[in-house]
Amino acid sequence: MSLIDEQEVPPDLPHIQRIEVNQLQCLRVQTARAELLIAEQGAQVLRYQEHGQEPLIWMSEEAAFEAGNSVRGGIPVCWPWFGDLMRNPPQVQSLHSGGRLPAHGLVRGIPWLLMENAIEGDSVRLVLAIPPTSESPALRHLPPGIELRLEILLDDRLHLKLTTRNGSEQHLALTQALHSYFAVSSIHDVTIEGLEGHRYIETLEGWAEREQKRALVVSSETDRIYLDLPPRLSIRDDGWNRRIQIEASGSTSAVVWNPWVSKARRLSQFADDAWQRMLCVETANVMEDLVELEPGAEHTLGVTLWSEKAGG
Ligand SMILES: O=P(O)(O)OC[C@H]1O[C@@H](O)[C@H](O)[C@@H](O)[C@@H]1O
């Protein structure tokens, strides 16, 4: 029997409920500690907030929640390429040709299928998967048998695991990201810790390679790919006196993005001043950290998110 409640009822916690947000079918999870909202389209986390705390994840005030379009905010899944396909390693580019090749791959705006939902004590586990590659128009050019699923576990932290299984008979190369938009008190009051001492690609200056000397304070448009990273990055937010912890697995690369003033004006579903309230730190497999899978092999990109008091 499904654990999902189709009705509006006062919940026993934890509780999973289906709701509609404009055109999108969503799953709303409530536990004693937190609320989580996930759109079946794109398996996109839309909201994650602990009761009595500021949201951990940012959602645009201008988000459209439309069928076929990724929602601005939350945690979009970028797969099987990240960003502009033409900037990807040749072995990734060569698997895709012709047609419309959108930024960040093919699965952000398509319906995913809910495969599992389970309440275990105080925690909730959901698994969503893309439809078989041969059945989805967007994925039809991929070899049949490639599987992608996102496991979402909410306990006292939020854990996401994105697993690709190459059930095809061909070698598969891909890049990907869990494109997390974090909520911040003010971009002027945050520092990203854990990048210092590591290489990055400055995409805004001819994709030049640089080294991050110290913890990053974002003070202009920022769009960088960091490489050879340790698992843990943190966002210290002095305005909200908290530190968001981002613990990656199956990944040594991350993208840090804030559009700042003028790019904000050109972005869809994005208020002109919203750049001050968000910061993307995206857990990724990009550039030389791409994923290569022989037939039968699988890879899991994971991230665990939580926050602590800044002093703690
Ligand atoms: O507007 P989109 O397709 O959601 O992309 C948003 C941003 O996503 C980031 O991951 C990229 O590094 C940026 O270059 C890009 O602008």
Description of the molecule:
The chain is mainly beta and 312 residues long. Helices cover 4% and strands 42% of the residues. The chain is built from two helices and 22 strands. Strands 5, 11, 12, 14, 15, 16, 19 and 20 form an eight-stranded antiparallel sheet that branches. Strands 6-7-8-9-22-18-17-13 form an eight-stranded antiparallel sheet, with no helix packed on it. The protein has a four-stranded antiparallel sheet with strand order 1-2-3-4, with no helix packed on it. A hairpin with a 5-residue loop joins strand 14 and strand 15. The structure holds 6-O-phosphono-beta-D-glucopyranose. Residues 83, 103-104, 179, 223, 255, 257, 267, 280, 282 line the site of 6-O-phosphono-beta-D-glucopyranose.
Give me a quick take on this structure.
The protein has 312 residues and is mainly beta. The protein is 4% helix and 42% strand. The termini are far apart.
Task: Give a list of the ligands.
Answer: 6-O-phosphono-beta-D-glucopyranose
The appropriate CATH architecture is Distorted Sandwich
What is the 3D form?
A: globular
β content, as a range? 35-45%
Provide the low-confidence segments as ranges: none
CATH class: Mainly Beta
Number of domains: 1
Number of helices: 2
Organism: Herbaspirillum seropedicae (strain SmR1)
Keywords: Isomerase
Protein name: Putative glucose-6-phosphate 1-epimerase
EC number: 5.1.3.15
